[in-house]
């Protein structure tokens, strides 16, 4: 069985539990994996054409990509060369995920990857496609003191700065949201009865190459934030998510 | 209605577009990135570009903007009035840039260009795949850091190969040389190695549905780094013109710059599509009204 199955390349930090469990689910079906630490990608021998992508001479059938644009990718290079090497490496790996015969989770398009995968990017993109999103005010508008600020670069809500500071940063602020987190896997929501708006968001994300995401929404199903490199607590939901991903990746790698 | 000029006020393209607009009697507002929150500010209070822009003592609805021309500086400054340490400046510049991206995504008027457009230029292999799917003819290529693969590929290409950066970082295009082979032997990051196409260099700027083709006369592999390069207006295959305009538009770009090598037999090989093209050298040397076309877009 193993000999007919293409290789799954997992690019993730060693402590990434989601990647560990997806790898285990894939291997349980008899699939072959290669685990690559993001910081070592720059030193790997790769060759990519518009028909094939190989790593160390081995053709790649699927990629589980748990990398953000701000992760270092070229730890093996001299300090003065790392930024350039990382940029070159990312350019090739992002392209390699878009070959027709390669399945990648997540397969970010250039717009998403080079926008930094920020939370407000996904909100804007979903909203432009008709998905309802929570209310956000940008800049120095007068706002209730109980509102919060979510920095663009982290997405983690914190105390709202004073209006002059919000003007300088064009800060995005919002009412305190007690988020309901839904896990999107390959276009579906891993729960019994997802809100239709959240289900629509999951389907759109999958169409854009995002096969795994955590969608935070409010009680009315309006999307507040999307995390495309999510971590989850152990439990039945986690199990369903990683098993589904492992199965999907295996089925792709085993198909001829 | 006004045109907003956002980003780096020292940028020559911003200065030129501003001058062209004023010459037509169109109002412009300069929005330097470094003075956001000090000399000017904006807010968004609902989806759909509802919000206001404050410049000095004046306030206007964002829907009063007829267009925005954008040129960001890769290393934007911080206003002297903001006394911040280096770490805080780093946070500020990142947050501020993201906030401006948010603004540009929200305003309902034409933006030349929204930063989300044409992003695949930062991954040359991905962009070449996309351009090929769009219908362009692309010279054969491989992206690799393996010497044996480069040498085998070079042997397949009758006219030799060139190499260039795989990412969007500016690099000089060179013919395969000992320097690259040595780096490949020692271990390096991947580069794009591509079949060399004998012919002439042609840059096609598209401004929505208009196309301006400029031919570069140069003996250099990379004419951009050659002081003696001559620029002149040239004609373009109508099918290529339509393809360029459609691809620029599909990529979310009001303004795009397509680079071609055109063979003596009239075959148009596309090398890349630039989402932030430096159109000034082409316009100044060839006399093509690219800037006027941009102002047309920003005022209609």
Q: What labels describe this entry?
A:
heterodimer, A: 256 residues, alpha+beta, Rossmann fold, four-stranded antiparallel β-sheet, 7 helices, 31% helix, B: 300 residues, D-amino Acid Aminotransferase, Chain A, domain 1, 3 domains, five-stranded antiparallel β-sheet, 16 strands, 29% strand
Could you characterize what this model shows?
The complex is a heterodimer of chains A (256) and B (300). In chain A, 31% of the residues lie in helices and 21% in strands. By secondary structure, chain A is α+β, with helices and mostly antiparallel strands. Chain A has a domain at 2-113 and 239-254: Rossmann fold. In chain A, the strands form 3 sheets. In chain A, strands 1, 2, 3, 4, 5 and 6 form a 6-stranded mixed beta sheet that branches. Chain A has a 4-stranded antiparallel beta sheet with strand order 7-10-8-9, with no helix packed on it. In chain A, strands 12-11-13-14 form a 4-stranded antiparallel beta sheet, sandwiched between helices. In chain A, strand 4 (53-55) and strand 5 (58-65) form a beta hairpin. In chain A, helix 1 (17-28) crosses helix 7. Chain A is globular, with a radius of gyration of 19 Å. The relative contact order of chain A is 0.16. The mean pLDDT of chain A is 93. Chain B has 300 residues and is α+β, with helices and mostly antiparallel strands. Chain B folds into 3 domains: 2-109, no CATH class; 143-193, no CATH class; 198-288, D-amino Acid Aminotransferase, Chain A, domain 1 (2-Layer Sandwich). Helix content of chain B is 31%, strand content 29%. Chain B contains 8 helices and 16 strands. Chain B has helices at residues 12-23, 86-106, 124-134, 147-156, 178-186, 238-250, 280-286, 290-299; strands spanning 2-7, 27-32, 40-46, 50-55, 58-61, 65-71, 111-112, 141-144, 161-164, 174-175, 191-195, 200-207, 210-217, 230-233, 255-262, 268-274. In chain B, a hairpin with a 2-residue loop joins strand 4 and strand 5. The longest helix of chain B has 21 residues, at 86-106. Chain B is globular. The relative contact order of chain B is 0.14. The chains are: A alpha+beta (256), B alpha+beta (300). At the A-B interface, strand 3, helix 2, helix 3, helix 4 and strand 7 of A face strand 3, helix 2, helix 3 and strand 8 of B. Strand 3 of chain A pairs antiparallel with strand 8 (141-144) of chain B, so a sheet runs across the interface.
């Amino acid at each position: 069985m193993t000999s007919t199955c293409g290789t799954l390349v997992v690019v993730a930090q060693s402590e990434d539990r989601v990647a560990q469990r997806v790898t285990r689910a894939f291997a349980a079906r008899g699939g072959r994996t290669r685990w690559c630490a993001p910081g070592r990608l720059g030193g790997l021998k790769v060759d990519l054409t518009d028909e094939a992508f190989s790593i160390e001479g081995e053709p790649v059938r699927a990629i589980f990509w748990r990398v953000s644009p701000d992760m270092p990718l070229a730890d093996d290079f001299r300090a003065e060369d790392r930024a350039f090497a990382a940029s070159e490496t990312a350019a090739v790996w992002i392209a390699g995920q878009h070959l027709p015969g390669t399945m990648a989770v997540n397969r970010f398009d250039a717009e998403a990857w080079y926008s930094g995968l920020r939370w407000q990017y996904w909100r804007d993109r979903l909203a432009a496609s008709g998905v309802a999103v929570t209310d956000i005010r940008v800049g120095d508008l007068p706002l209730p003191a109980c509102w919060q600020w979510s920095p663009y670069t982290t997405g983690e809500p914190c105390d709202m700065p004073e209006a002059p500071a919000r003007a300088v940063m064009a800060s995005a602020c919002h009412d305190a949201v007690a988020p309901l987190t839904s896990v999107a896997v390959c276009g579906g929501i891993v729960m019994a009865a997802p809100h239709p708006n959240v289900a629509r968001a999951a389907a759109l994300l999958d169409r854009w190459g995002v096969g795994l995401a955590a969608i935070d929404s409010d009680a009315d199903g309006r999307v507040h934030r999307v995390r495309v490199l999510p971590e989850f607590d152990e439990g039945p939901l986690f199990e369903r998510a990683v098993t589904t991903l492992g199965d999907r990746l295996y089925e792709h790698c085993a198909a001829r | 209605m006004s045109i907003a000029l956002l980003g780096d006020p020292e940028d020559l393209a911003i200065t030129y577009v501003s001058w062209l607009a004023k010459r037509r009697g169109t109002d412009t507002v300069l929005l330097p990135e470094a003075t956001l929150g000090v000399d000017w500010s904006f807010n968004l209070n609902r989806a759909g570009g509802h919000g206001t822009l404050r410049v000095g003592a004046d306030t206007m609805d964002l829907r009063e903007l007829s267009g925005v021309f954008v040129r960001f500086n890769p290393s934007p400054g911080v206003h002297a009035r903001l006394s911040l340490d280096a770490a805080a400046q780093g946070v500020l510049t990142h947050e501020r840039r993201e906030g401006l991206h948010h603004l540009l995504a929200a305003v309902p008027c034409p933006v030349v260009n929204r930063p989300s457009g044409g992003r695949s230029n930062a991954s040359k292999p991905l962009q070449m795949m996309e351009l090929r799917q769009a219908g362009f003819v692309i010279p054969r290529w491989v992206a690799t850091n393996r010497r044996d693969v480069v040498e085998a590929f070079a042997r397949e290409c009758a006219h030799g190969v060139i190499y260039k950066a795989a990412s969007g970082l500016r690099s000089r295009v060179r013919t395969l040389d000992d320097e690259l082979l040595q780096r490949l032997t020692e271990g390096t990051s991947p580069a794009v190695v591509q079949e060399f196409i004998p012919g002439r260099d042609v840059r096609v700027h598209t401004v929505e549905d208009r196309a301006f083709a400029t031919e570069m006369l140069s003996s250099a592999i990379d004419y951009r780094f050659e002081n003696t390069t001559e620029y002149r207006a040239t004609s373009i295959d109508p099918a290529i013109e339509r393809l360029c305009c459609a691809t620029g538009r599909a990529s979310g770009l009001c303004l795009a710059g397509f680079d071609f090598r055109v063979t003596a037999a009239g075959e148009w090989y596309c090398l890349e599509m630039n989402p932030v093209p430096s159109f000034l050298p082409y316009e100044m040397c060839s006399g093509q009204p690219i800037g006027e076309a941009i102002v047309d877009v920003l005022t209609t």
